[in-house]
Structures are given as structure tokens and as C-alpha cells.
Amino acid sequence: AALREGYEHFDPRAYLQNNYLPPRADFSSEEFVVPWKLRCLAETFASGEIRGRTLIDVGSGPTIYQLLSACDHFEEIVATDYLAVNREELGRWARGEPGTFDWSPFIQHVCKIEGRGEPWQEKERRLRGRLRRILPIDVHRPDPLGSPLRPPADALLSAFCLEAVSPDRDAFARALAHVGS
């Protein structure tokens, strides 16, 4: 209940500006968290071991950076978040509405890491095309999406969600079991 109450006044725009613009979003060195996260994701998906028809991103928040390397390995990406304001922010970006957060520095960096010489606009277009559903989720319920996804997902991705919304280790273990279903 306390966690839910804390998120009631969440402002996705302020969150994005605080965490995904300089100085926090500094691409000048791998010692900074943003390029490190992007490299980890790129290397994970480049292995080819994680691929399939559908990927569910558990607790997307208002962000897409975690999906940039994934979009080359899945036909459909399902973003999820507990907060309607985050789902709305993602939807506006997916539709290409003006005034949404500018993810182009992230996309350009991922294209550089992946080293295929792909124009960043092509990756952006591909991700928008594959981000087909943005659904509500509550990882603390036994059926987090409310009903099973059909067909079932081939893979799950969660970047800093479960640990952020779990007040203790037991809650984390339950949330992990819930999303695994």
C-alpha cells in the first residue's frame, strides 16, 4: 500500500528529465551507468540466445532504452507498467507524437555499439513498429497482466522494476514468480 501511494503522483516527464538527460545520461564513458546499461543489453541480445515472436518488458516505466537492442530479435514487444501515466507516455512516443521525450541520443549510441552502420532512424522506426501493445501490470498479483497473454511470450525483460517495487526479498521473490507465470 505504501509503495502504491508513493507512485500516485509520479511524473514521467520529470523522471525522464532527471534520469535520462545529462549529466546522468552521459555517453562519453562506459563508466557511466547509461552507456553501461545499453552495452549490457546490446551484448545480451547480440548473443542470439534471446529471441522469438513476443517479448514482454515488465515494468517499462516511461522508457524505451531497454528495448532498443531487443527490437531486432522479436516480432512483437509488449511494454507494461503499473502506472497509466507511464503507459500514456510510452503510447505517445510509439505513435510519434510531437513533444515526447527525445530518445535519439540513446538510439544513436545503441546503433554505434551494435556496429552495423544502421541509421538510427531505422532502428527507431522498427521499435515503434514492434511495440504493439502497452498493457497495465501489477507484479504483486498472481496474474500480473490480469489474464494470460495469448500466445504466451517467448521472453521477459525487466530493467530495474521488480527490485524497485518490492519492499523486501520475499516480495521480490513473489513478484518474480508472478511474472514468470
Please tell me about this protein's structure.
- The chain is α/β, with parallel strands linked by helices and 181 residues long.
- It has a single domain (1-180), classed as Rossmann fold, CATH 3.40.50.150.
- The chain is 43% helix and 13% strand.
- It has helices spanning 2-7, 12-19, 33-46, 84-94, 104-114, 120-130, 162-165, 169-180, and strands spanning 52-57, 74-81, 131-136, 155-157.
- A four-stranded parallel β-sheet has the order 3-2-1-4.
- It is globular.
- The two termini are 23 Å apart.
Order of helices and strands: HHHEEHHHEEHH
> Strand percentage, roughly?
5-15%
Specify the CATH architecture.
Answer: 3-Layer(aba) Sandwich
Structural class: alpha/beta
Helix content: 40-55%
Q: So what's the CATH class?
A: Alpha Beta
Q: What would the average pLDDT be, to the nearest integer?
A: 93
* Tally of alpha and pi helices: 8
Distance between the termini: 23 Å
- Within CATH, the superfamily carries the name Vaccinia Virus protein VP39
Strand order, largest beta sheet: 3-2-1-4
Q: Report the count of strand segments.
A: 4
Low-confidence stretches: none
Biggest sheet overview: 4 strands, parallel
**What is the overall silhouette?**
globular
CATH topology: Rossmann fold
Query: How many structural domains can be distinguished in the coordinates?
Result: 1
Report the C-alpha radius of gyration, rounded. 16 Å
InterPro entries: NNMT_TEMT_trans, SAM-dependent_MTases_sf
GO cellular component, one term: cytosol
Protein name: PNMT methyltransferase
Organism: Trogon melanurus (Black-tailed trogon)
